[in-house]
Amino acid sequence: MKYLRPGKNNKEERMNFVKYWANYVKTHSDREWSRQQNVLINSLMKNAKNSKMTPRQYLKIKGEVCLR
Length: 68
What we know:
The chain is mainly alpha-helical.
């Protein structure tokens, strides 16, 4: 499998990632990459549930307005 190549700028970096991921999906079984995505999503959800930060605090860090 090809390695992910760094880009010269943000756009090239993103395009390299899209090509890398498309190649990965084509060369690995649905079951394999699906399982890996499941692990990632579950860990993100677990992390979000265990966060002591409120939505308002998170948005403040991001510089966005909380409308709640």
